[in-house]
Known about the structure:
- The structure holds 2 protein chains of 2 kinds.
- Chain A is an alpha+beta fold.
- Chain A has helices at residues 2-38, 141-156, 161-175, and strands spanning 43-49, 52-56, 61-64, 70-76, 80-84, 92-99, 103-108, 111-116, 121-128, 131-137.
- Chain A has 3 helices and 10 strands; from the N terminus they run αββββββββββαα.
- A 10-stranded antiparallel beta sheet of chain A has the order 1-4-5-6-7-8-9-10-2-3, covered by helices on one side.
- Chain B is of the alpha+beta class.
- An 8-stranded antiparallel barrel of chain B has the order 1-2-3-4-5-6-7-8.
- The A-B interface holds A 97-98, 105, 109-111, 127, 158, 160-162, 165-166 and B 119-122, 125-126, 129, 132, 150, 153-155.
Amino acid sequence: xxxxxxxxxxxxxxxxxxxxxxxxxxxxxxxxxxxxxxxxxxxxxxxxxxxxxxxxxxxxxxxxxxxxxxxxxxxxxxxxxxxxxxxxxxxxxxxxxxxxxxxxxxxxxxxxxxxxxxxxxxxxxxxxxxxxxxxxxxxxxxxxxxxxxxxxxxxxxxxxxxxxxxxxxxxxxxxx
Amino acid sequence: xxxxxxxxxxxxxxxxxxxxxxxxxxxxxxxxxxxxxxxxxxxxxxxxxxxxxxxxxxxxxxxxxxxxxxxxxxxxxxxxxxxxxxxxxxxxxxxxxxxxxxxxxxxxxxxxxxxxxxxxxxxxxxxxxxxxxxxxxxxxxxxxxxxxxxxxxxx
Lengths: 176, 155
């Protein structure tokens, strides 16, 4: 009698255990579906800048803007980097090529865009009339202008776009 | 004993199959770049498909479906690129990561760099650098080393 009762209790326990395992598996599946739907490590950064810094190949560097504080918004997920220096103009959407906690390297129309997440800044390369241009936006004007100048110097000295991106990565990680 | 022998044989078979596994890739592209030391940059626009087949020994490629295949002997192969040599000793560089193919030819004293594959801006940029290096007195091997460094970047 005790033996039968014991077996029944054991069976009940087994059933309960199976139910818990099933429930845990279901929770894990739901979690994975939600994670893939909403994207792992989705994020956004609200930053600002006072001047846009621009350097033209074989020319000079300039600061544009009224010197007053303007919003710089950076949004990202695993596939896209979206940023804007003026919300009324909409976001520039770029394809992410490499991403870490500190930076994002992305491409927009075959030209590289770099987001420094530690200094909340954006840098990019443009190509106009067969000449390179470099642009930078961020709260630390000194750092942004310095990097934008270094970027154009590299391109003038025959670095590739990828070399410039590696330079920016090194700068970000060095500062860290 | 027999079981061990058969396991070893099967392992050898799988290793050899894995080593000689033929990779086949085809990439649509729209501009074919040719940068001549004397005549400068020339680009050919159209709808092309770069077709590449490779294993550890051979690289076969054609610039488009209608073009004839070029068979080259692999000199160096990494996960990101292949350097191979054609019958006439022309060095071919294929970036596996970027799906781009480059080569240099020499006619009398003048070099021409060719570039084709995914991303016309990047191909044009690299073809320009290839000729610049030659103009700076660098060798074909230096050009291959430059392309290798570019292909090593993971972005």
